[in-house]
Amino acid sequence: MPDLLLELRSEEIPARMQRKAAGDLKKMMTDGLIEAGLTYEAAREYWTPRRLALDIRGVTARSKDISEEIKGPSTKAPEQAVQGFLRKAGLSSIAEAHVHADPKKGDFYVAHIAKPGRAAEAIIAELVPGIIRGFPWPKSMRWGPASARPGSLRWVRPLQSILCTFGPETEEPVVVDFEIDGIRSGNVTYGHRFHAPGAITVRRFDDYAAKLEAAKVVLDADRRKEIILSDARNLAFANGLDLVEDEGLLEEVSGLVEWPVVLMGEFEQDFLAIPAEVIRLTIRANQKCFVTRPHGAGEELSNRFILTANIEASDGGKEIAYGNGKVVRARLSDALYFWKTDQGDLPDLDQLQASAEKFGLDLKKPLDQRMARLDHLGVTFHAKLGTQGERVERIARLAEELAPIVASCPSPLEGEMAGRPEGVAARETPASSVRDRASRQDVPTPSVAFGDISPSRGEITALARRAAVLAKADLTTEVVGEFPELQGAMGRKYALLQGEHPSAAAAIEEHYKPQGPSDRVPTDQVSVAVALADKLDTLVSFWAIDEKPTGSKDPYALRRAALGVVRILVENGIRLALTPIFGSAYEWANYLDKNAVTTLEGKAEQIYRSDLLAFFHDRLKVYLRDQGARHDLIDAVLAPRPISRLEGEMSPEATERGADPRETTPSALPGISPSRGEIGQSSNDDLLQIVRRVQALGSFLDTEDGKNLLAGTKRAANILAAEEKKKTTVAERVEPGLFREDAEKALFAAVNQAEKEAGQAIHNEDFSAAMLALSALREPVDSFFERVLVNDEDQAVRANRLALLARIRAATDQVADFSKIAG
């Protein structure tokens, strides 16, 4: 079958656009062939800085003949309908249509359209110009005299030639002839701009690739990357160095050269006084070069760098390396100036006193000066959310609030995804506010994983506030002004230089983490507190001004911030009730006119305790699904479960005595009263507890008892739902005196016991024990459905049995809504 070779050669395409452009060309071309009735066996795209190429194998030589029928209106239809049918079918008169009969609808017109197949060359000649004119470049240009005309060709850089051949391997391929804005297709391409600028005639892809290679053009971008990486490693090793690899830079450099030649340059040793991150970014951003380090060294760099030329120079590249070295030295001189300037005093210290007093800053320290200046200058964070200084004030207060809570949570075991290590006692029920809870908790000795911080809550709180106050100070430094991607990292270095506590310095850098699903989460207690404060303040603030993510739009990366909070809490095993934190963050919202809000509590209830918490639940679902959790288990745990009249009101002892169960102590569910209308919701703002529930539920349902109990519970729920829909009476409470079967009595006793034990286990936050307690219901439930007819003729007995089914649903609902579980 014939093969198609297409090359679009232009001036240099920006490296960042090449890979996507080649993919777009492949998709547009193959989609166009399929739409035109052709098929193909395989397609692969290629690209270099000066060309996009496409190799499509096994293209059918001709599209198939097509016959179709277009049904028209009735033969009695008005003239207007008939004319519309003619236009649709492409007929010139109704005489060209056929009349078909229908016994029910009568006679109607039908157009029989026959479309003969077309040669693939004709289809390609028509398809390619349209693709070129409609190509989705992020930016494009016009050029030459033709650019003055409306509708002239646009391309990312001036298009110079088009190569397009088509034919089978056994025959001489033909040139697919077409023209676009004076550029006619052919079978000619050109090699390397300097080494082989002459014309090259090609036939098909194998011939094309081989001749380009001979003309100093490596067509395959991945092979260029392999050449650069291998040669760079070898050159560094030969000089006793290790290459500092950079996949992003490698991708970019491979898009800058057609014939990669790896060379080594150097700069003065004195520049190594600059932090390694600054050297690396300076050389990477300005010269697209790789840095090296002494063999076996940690973060220390050498004064040698690796560059990639696009030419084999007659002097072996000495002048190229020397020229690059001159530019690198100039850039590093600027970086050294920035580094030293950031460690000196600011010239306007007398104007910063007020800001220093507000944040408790020491103006003898350079980083404190920068924070004072950030506040003094009134740098805007967001038009509706005030300045960076006001934001830092909120973050610092929130970090103080969170630090004792973080400090009271032991770190998770090594390698655990989440949760408290076995044997650690459960904490008490969350208090009504963060401040109350923090003051009531016992503070266990922190894990050694958190460094040399004293377990004193006061010290950790003070360090968290100090770190939060300095967290944004490096935004006004010269180095971060030049390299914004170093924010946080430079703050940590400057903090250590002025003698800050290592944990506070680490928090300045790590409070931005995690910045994506693959980024690590902070584990130091101070870093965790500041990172949570920063992200939670951001989320609450943007929710308060109604700037929420919509669809695919998330300009303030709020989804990433919420996922960061989820990962920090879960992976560090931190118990945190989010709702009170939302309230605290809103209470300190210095960007809002509180007089314009009817009631602070009402506004917070409206904004945060439903909408923002639901947003966190969505992010948690994404996270857990990525970890392999079943989506239906997550939905079951998160689902609001309506409280029945029987839930939380039955006490076996009271019932046996004949007392009114509504006068007894409710079931041991933390923080829930029957009047609230929802069960389990008080713990739905504790993300770690949700994760533990999902894990315990998944483990339980993997057992035979779990599967059978799920089936029985769903059967009970379905019967109840059907009867409630028919408005069948369900008893207010279960009356043992109405039992007629032993199976009823056994189930009633089992439910009482399971509900009590499961409730106590949930109160102790031992969800595995709660599942074990529920597993005791399996046999009584199976026996009940085997031996008992729920819809008894006696209305009182039927209502009593339905109440017993409600008790089953109530017992399992303490853990999850079983109706949402598949199976």
Mean pLDDT: 85
Which percent range describes the beta-strand content? Answer: 5-15%
Stretches where pLDDT is under 50 for at least 5 consecutive residues are 412-455, 642-682
Biggest sheet descriptor: 5 strands, antiparallel
Q: What is the helix tally?
A: 28
Q: Which strand order spans the largest sheet, edge to edge or round the barrel? A: 2-3-1-7-8
Helix content estimate: 40-55%
Oligomer: single chain
Through-space gap between termini: 50 Å
Question: What does it look like?
Answer:
The structure is a single chain. This protein is an alpha+beta fold and about 800 residues long. It is built from 28 helices and 20 strands. β17 and β18 form a beta hairpin.
List key phrases describing it.
single chain, alpha+beta, 823 residues
In short:
It is built from 28 helices and 20 strands. It is α+β, with helices and mostly antiparallel strands and 823 residues long.
Write the layout of secondary structure elements.
Blueprint: E1 3-10, H1 15-35, E2 42-48, E3 51-57, E4 66-74, H2 79-89, E5 98-100, E6 108-115, H3 120-133, E7 159-167, E8 174-175, E9 179-180, E10 183-184, E11 188-190, E12 199-201, H4 205-214, H5 221-238, E13 241-243, H6 247-254, E14 261-266, H7 276-287, E15 290-294, E16 304-309, H8 318-341, H9 353-359, H10 366-377, E17 380-382, E18 386-387, H11 388-407, H12 434-440, H13 457-470, H14 478-482, H15 489-497, H16 502-510, H17 525-544, H18 558-571, H19 578-587, H20 600-626, H21 631-638, E19 641-642, H22 652-657, E20 678-679, H23 687-701, H24 704-725, H25 742-763, H26 767-775, H27 778-787, H28 795-813
Antiparallel strand pairs: 1-3, 1-7, 2-3, 4-6, 5-6, 7-8, 9-10, 11-12, 13-15, 14-16, 15-16, 17-18, 19-20
Helix pairs in contact: 1-3, 5-6, 7-8, 9-10, 11-12, 11-13, 11-17, 13-16, 13-17, 15-16, 16-17, 17-18, 17-19, 18-20, 19-20, 20-21, 21-23, 23-26, 24-27, 24-28, 25-26, 25-27, 25-28
